[in-house]
Write a structure and sequence with these properties.
By secondary structure, the chain is mainly alpha-helical. The protein contains 6 helices and 3 strands, in the order H-H-H-H-E-H-E-E-H. It has a 3-stranded antiparallel beta sheet.
Length: about 160
């Protein structure tokens, strides 16, 4: 019964929180309406979710989120320094091809999103066979170091989170 009413409980909770942030006021009516959205939307979209992603290690997932948030803050300062103190001719933007070992569509999506959310890098394209992602770096002197950093800092952890 719970499975039919709440096919994706985390999605339901997320919809409730997003609704409360959109209306910017926590009242009984807003919580009730957000709860209704949180129940109805997942039920209506459940046929389009063929399977749930299985998170193997929730502690590692939390660690990943904290690392990404830290990297976003640090990268913001790095990009600000590039914009404020480097001349255009001193900025070396490069394309870097990052070969992927993760095969889960969820892990690949999270990796590409992480790269894009981190200021100074953008995941531009995924290869047709999902074996590599093309990343544009705002300022990069060593493309191999960028590739290795993405693989060691993000992909390695995603391999531990998703089977």
């Amino acid at each position: 019964m719970r499975r039919k009413l709440l096919p994706h409980p985390l999605f339901s909770f997320t919809l409730l929180i997003i609704w409360l942030m959109l209306v910017n006021k926590v009242t009984v009516g807003n919580v009730l309406l957000g709860g209704i959205f949180g129940v109805i939307v997942p039920i209506l979209t459940a046929p389009y979710w063929p399977g749930r992603p299985h998170i193997q290690n929730h502690f590692k997932a939390l660690e990943y989120v904290l690392i990404v948030l830290w990297d976003i803050v640090v990268a913001n300062f790095h990009v600000a320094a590039i914009i404020l103190f480097k001349r255009n001719k001193d900025i070396h933007s490069k394309w870097v091809c990052v070969p992927l070992e993760v095969t889960s569509p969820e892990a690949i999506t999270i990796l590409a999103g992480t790269i894009t959310m981190t200021p100074g890098t953008v995941s531009a394209m995924l290869s047709a066979d999902s074996s590599s992602v093309l990343v544009h770096c705002l300022d990069c002197d060593d493309p191999d170091a960028v590739r290795d950093g993405i693989k060691n800092r993000y992909e390695r952890r995603l391999k531990e989170i998703f089977p």
